C-alpha cells in the first residue's frame, strides 16, 4: 500500500530521528500510563536511600575524638560518622540532654565536648543499633559520653523527598513532554514536507494526513503493547492524550503553506 | 518493450483551438486578479485554455507568470474573478515549479518514482522501463543514483521535468523549465512535449522569459506584462 510504503521510506531516511521519536513516544506515554506505579516505586526507593537512622553523641574532649571517629567509621553497620560543627553543638546539646536527663543543664557541658553524628546503615535493625551504641560507650568510657536518641531521618532529607514528590515528577514529565514535542514536530514536519510535494504528482489527496493517521495507529501499538504485557490492561487516557496531540499537530502543520 | 508513445492513437495534427473553436476549454479564467498584500500580481485576466494546446507564457520577471501557473495547479487562490476547471473527471495537472520542489535528500531516481501510480502503469516494471527510456532521451541515465542536492542545475531541471511527465498528466505546467539548460536540452524537452501533445493531446503551458527560445519553437504565445495579457497569438516559427 502506497501510504505504508511512504511512511516506511520516511522512517528509513530519517532513521535516527525516527528511532528517537518512537522511543520517546513509548517512554512518555507509558510513563503517563504507569505514573502511579512508577512514582510509588521511586518514592519507596528514595525513602530507603534517604531515611538513614542516626544519632548524635557528645564526647568529652579529653578523649581523642578523631581516633574514635576513625574506629567507628570502620565498623560494619555504620554508614558514616561526621563531626558536628562547633557552633551547631550549642543548639543541639540542649535538646539532646533534655531527652536524656532533666537534671543536666547546658552549663554543665561547658565547651569540653565535641559532637559526632553517627549514621547507621538503613539495614541495621534496633538490636544492631544498640550493640553499636554500647560499643561506643565502652570505647570512650561511660562518663565521657552523652548519646542522643536514634532519629530515623533528618529534616534536610525529608525536604529532598518532598521536593521529588512535589516537583521532581512534574519536572521529569514536563521535560520529557517538551523533548517529545520537539522530536514529534520535527518528524511530522518531514512527513508533511515530503507528502505535500509527492501529493502534487499523485492522483490522491491528503497524503500527509493519511500518513499521520497510519503513524498514530502504529505508534499506538508501541504504546499499548508494554501495557498489555505488564498490566494486561490499556490506559485509555494516555492513548487519548497521544492521539489528541498528534491530531492537533497535524492541524497546525496543515495551516502552513507548503508549496 | 512496450513504448509509451505507441499506446494511444496518433493524432496527426495539433488541435487548432487557439482561435476558440468547438472544443470546451480545460481552464477558463474570467476577470481573475491576484494580489499579494498591496502588490497586484495579476489583474483582470481573461483566458481560456483548451485541451491539446501548447502555450508559451512569456513576459519579463515579475510579470505574473508564476502566479498564473500556480492558480492552474491550485497552489494559490485568486483574489477575485472566476476560475473553472473542465475536462475529464479528474483533470490531472502536473507541475514543474520554478524552484523545482525536488526532494533534496533523495536520489534522482527516487524523485522520479514519486510519479509512479499503480492504476496507470499497472506494474513497477513497466514504469521502470519508461523511466529508462526517458532518462536515455535526456542523457541522464548514468546519474540516477546521485543525490539531488548534489546534482547540477541541468540535471535538477531534467529530474523535475520527468517527474511531472511520468505522471502522464492531462496538463503539464512548466515554470522556467529551461532556466539552466542549453539549447540542445531545451530542444529535447520541447520535442518530447510536442510528440506527446500531438499523440496524446497533452496540454502544455510553459512559462519562460527567454524569447529567443520561444521563437524557435511552435505554439501559442501569451505575453504578460505587469499582471496583464498584452498579446496573444501563434508563434511565427513553425
Ligand atoms: N508570495 C508572494 N508574496 C508577495 N509578492 C509576491 C509573491 N509571489 C509573487 N509576488 C509578486 O507578484 C508579482 C508577480 O510575480 P511572479 O508571478 O512570480 O512573476 P514571474 O513569474 O513572471 O517572474 C511580482 O511583483 C512578485 O514580486
Ligand atoms: Mg516566475
Explain what this protein looks like in three dimensions.
The complex is a heterodimer of chains A (259) and B (238). In chain A, α2 crosses α10. Chain A has helices at 2-13, 15-33, 35-50, 65-73, 86-100, 106-109, 126-140, 155-199, 207-230, 236-254; strands at 54-60, 78-83, 113-120, 145-147. Chain A has 2 domains: 2-41 and 158-254, no CATH class; 52-152, Alpha-Beta Plaits (2-Layer Sandwich), CATH 3.30.70. Chain A has 259 residues and is an alpha+beta fold. Chain A has a 4-stranded antiparallel β-sheet with strand order 2-3-1-4, with helices on both faces. In chain B, α6 (183-200) links the parallel β6 (171-175) and β7 (203-207). In chain B, the strands form 2 sheets. A 6-stranded mixed β-sheet of chain B has the order 5-6-7-3-8-9, sandwiched between helices. Chain B is 29% helix and 26% strand. Chain B contains 7 helices and 9 strands. Chain B has helices at 65-72, 108-112, 118-121, 124-137, 153-165, 183-200, 211-216, and strands at 25-36, 39-50, 54-58, 80-85, 93-96, 171-175, 203-207, 220-225, 228-234. Chain B has 238 residues and is an alpha/beta fold. The interface between A and B is medium-sized, with 10 and 21 residues. Adenosine-5'-diphosphate is lined by residues 36, 39, 41, 59, 61-67 of chain B. Residues 36, 39, 41, 59, 61-67 of chain B line the site of adenosine-5'-diphosphate.
Q: If you average the pLDDT of chain A, what whole number results?
A: 85
The rounded Rg of chain A comes to 31 Å
In what order do the strands lie side by side in the largest sheet of chain B? 5-6-7-3-8-9
Order of helices and strands of chain A: HHHEHEHHEHEHHH
| Number of helical stretches of at least 4 residues of chain A | 10
| Structure annotation, total helices of chain B | 7
- Distinct ligands: adenosine-5'-diphosphate, magnesium ion
By CATH, the topology of chain B is Rossmann fold
Quaternary organization: heterodimer
Backbone shape of chain A: rod-shaped
Category from helices, strands and their pairing of chain A: alpha+beta
Low-confidence stretches of chain B: 4-13, 15-21
CATH class descriptor of chain B:
Alpha Beta
Largest pleated sheet of chain A: 4 strands, antiparallel
Q: Report, as a whole number of angstroms, the end-to-end distance of chain B.
A: 33 Å
Query: Care to count the β-strands of chain B?
Result: 9
